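Sequence in, structure out. First:
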Amino acid sequence: MGELASESQGSKELGDVLFQMAEVHRQIQNQLEEMLKSFHNELLTQLEQKVELDSRYLSAALKKYQTEQRSKGDALDKCQAELKKLRKKSQGSKNPQKYSDKELQYIDAISNKQGELENYVSDGYKTALTEERRRFCFLVEKQCAVAKNSAAYHSKGKELLAQKLPLWQQACADPSKIPE
C-alpha cells in the first residue's frame, strides 16, 4: 500500500507515512520477539532446570528425613518396650523397689527421645517451609524479570507510537489537500 501511495502524485507523502508506520510496527514486532525470547530464557528454561535439580534434591532430602525420623521413632519405641518389660518384671517381683531406679532411667530416656523426635519433626517442618518459600521466591523473582521486560516492551512501543502518531495524523488531516 505504501508503494502504491508513493507512486501517486497526490499521495506520495502518505506513502512515506505508510512506510514509516510499517517500520514502526516491524520494530515493535521485533521487540515483542525479543521479549518472548527473554521470557523463554529468563523463565521457562531456568524453571525447567530448577525443577529437575529440585526434584532430585527434594527426593534425597525426603528420604534422609524419613530415614532419620524412622530411626528416632524406632529408638523411642525400643525404649518404651524396654520400660514395659521392666514394669512387668517389677510387678511379678517380690521386691519391685529394686527396679524403680532403672524405670526412672527409662522414663527419662523416653522423655529425651520424644523431645528429640519432636524437635526433629519441628525442624524438618521449618526446613520444608523454608525450601518451599525459596522455590516460590525464585518463581516470583523470575516473573518480576519477565514483567519488567514486558513493561519495557510496552513502554518502548508506546514511546515509538506517541512520537510518530501526531505526524501521521497530521499527514492526513486534510484529505482534500493536494501537493503543489
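Second:
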Amino acid sequence: MESGAGKHWTEEEVKALLSVWSEKNIRKQLHGTLRNKGIFIYIAKRLQELGVCRDWKQCRAKYKNLKYEYRTVKYAHNSGDVTKTMKFFHDLDSILRYEPVTQLAAEENGRCSATETQLNTSPTTDSTQ
C-alpha cells in the first residue's frame, strides 16, 4: 500500500502516534519548539518500530491537525457546546491539558507582554485553590 500525503491514518496509527507523543520527553521537546523537524524525524522512527510507516512530514501534519481539532472541541466545551466531539479527545486532553500556552497580558503602561499560563480546565479547579 502506498503511503502518500493523502493516505488516511488508521485508528491504530493514530493510537501509536499518541502513545509516542504522550511521552514526557517528546512533549517537552515539542512545546515551544518552532523548528521541530528533528523531533518529528525521531517520532517517525519510533512509529516505524511500532509498525507504522509514516514520514516526518506526515507525522507533523497529523500532530498539527489533532492539536487544532482538540483545541476547537475544547473551546466549544468551554463555551457550553458539548455537542462538538472528536475521537481521541480524552487522550489528547491528558497530553495537552497542562501544556503552557502563551497569552498576552496588558501591562500597566498599556503595552502587552507575553506570559505563560497553564491550561488547566479540570472540573476540580475553582477560585478557592
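Remark: The two ends are 53 Å apart (CA to CA).
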